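Margin note from the TA: students keep mixing up input and output lines. Inputs are the sequences; the output is the structure of the whole complex. Example:
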Amino acid sequence: MSDASARARILAAAQDLFQRRGFHAVGLSDILAVAKAPKGSLYHHFPAGKDELGARAVEGIAADVTAYIAARRAEGAGAVDIIGDLAEMSARRMEQERFGWSPLIAAVAHQTGADTPLLAQALAGAYAGWRRLLGEAFADEGFAPEIAQSLARTAIALLEGAVILARVDRDAAPLRAVQRQTTRLAALEREDRPPTNG
Amino acid sequence: MSDASARARILAAAQDLFQRRGFHAVGLSDILAVAKAPKGSLYHHFPAGKDELGARAVEGIAADVTAYIAARRAEGAGAVDIIGDLAEMSARRMEQERFGWSPLIAAVAHQTGADTPLLAQALAGAYAGWRRLLGEAFADEGFAPEIAQSLARTAIALLEGAVILARVDRDAAPLRAVQRQTTRLAALEREDRPPTNG
């Protein structure tokens, strides 16, 4: 096998296992077994070990989501539609996996600590990136910058909270309510402060 | 030591460790070490092992929150004030613990699976109980039952999502925004459907 494919397989195995069981519960030996890779290749590609692997796994998913948001914006989709689509994608995957799976960020967010500085940094970077992109989308629709950022943050909180409720109740309905809730909060902000171009 | 105190110490140690590291990462030996209890007492009090211990830990916290909500309602507090207080309590504890701690339900919610049926049941029961109580509080303020339940569910999603953002960003601001967001969503519902006594 090529060196690059071993790295990709290790990362994919780590992402999948973390999404099912969280960060701490997954051992490096579990990841190597799924990836069919030797231990040496893990430390070759991820010299700082599991913390680094967690960070790269989060960064990979974060980049996918960022690319998705950017592509939808380029197509002319509005902020709440993009948020609704992200919620729907999580809902479908959770249903397919019979609620034994969570989106990566939510699955590992509560498990960072002093021993996982790289993972903590990657998580903060992921949220900051989505908040910025979604905030720009709201701003393009006429919201003042600070309102746009606040709407983006609230939408992300609603999404992540809905993921928890969906997992616990084994029912994706909370995710399917996120778009309407965000639409309503955005409408309220618009009533408060009419956009200068409105 | 008395038998009852060993059980209480094991449960308190489990709650604390789960809140810091999640469910799977905490070993029974970690819990016994913190609780200063012998292994036999764990299986005596929790015959189904870690899954049962997780379930009882969640039920204990859920009962505390339920009692708090009931007490605040008895004092005449409104639904959004109670939600704001719950958010503020989480915010303060997370700050005190320098964001190395999460409220128990959020900390373990993504880690349930086929091997943790008791924990999964306890988590679902905890949310159902809070949703019912907060839903009753909204209903008492004149919201139709299905709107009241929907507001309660949204408020809980906002709370849990804000906990994730707070932990990742090491900043409790998202929790301190929950009360205002819930107030606004409730106000919108009131505009849509004026209460019959309004």
